[in-house]
Amino acid sequence: MSVIWIIEHAEAPQPKLASALIGDYAVRAFASLNSFIRLLRLKRSQLPDLLLIDATTQRVTATQLREVLDCHLPKTPIVCVEAEATTKDGSVDDQYKGKDAVQNLHVYHRPFDGLRLSAFVEEIIQTSEISNPRSIARYRGIMLDYHRLEYVVAPNEAAVALPRREAQLLRLFLDRPGVCLSRDEISELIWENVHVTPRTIDSHMSRLRQRLEGADVEIVTVYGGGYVLK
Q1: What is the pTM of this model?
Q2: Which CATH class is domain 3-130?
């Protein structure tokens, strides 16, 4: 079941967007953009398949949307529910165009209809290029897209390709920040049934550390223990 996160005011007119989509999708609702961003900063792996914003009660600028996407929701489609369209083509509103254009943004115009909205959302999810949400791992500005073998060390920076073995190591540490991982554990989890020497592991860790230079994290060697991401 696809996961949709919705931002709509608690006092928004009935029917609520969340209420209309529950059952067809796994829905989580937020009362404001700020509460939504606070959760994003805490969660490291699970991302929604689509973000839905009731723009009739939540005024969100193109700059705000772009910042949320670049920092927290790379490649995630966004649907803004706007007031009734003044044009017949249903094109994206001018406020989201131009130099501040938001990628993967779609606009749904009222009048509201639960079935029509559900079909609209489903079509976007089916045609979206977003990676599997479980392939995304994040921690303190580091974002790894394991499906695409790309990583970003800070918001708004370009994604950089990553060799698969180093991507496996980075995902392992991003999923377990603050946890000391021994060389034996790393060998078992990453190389599985292949025998590797401690020197091989240390070499891969050295290269990964170099890639993370300038980030707000570091991989620390624990004497006699292994490695830990801090």
Answers
A1: 0.52
A2: alpha beta
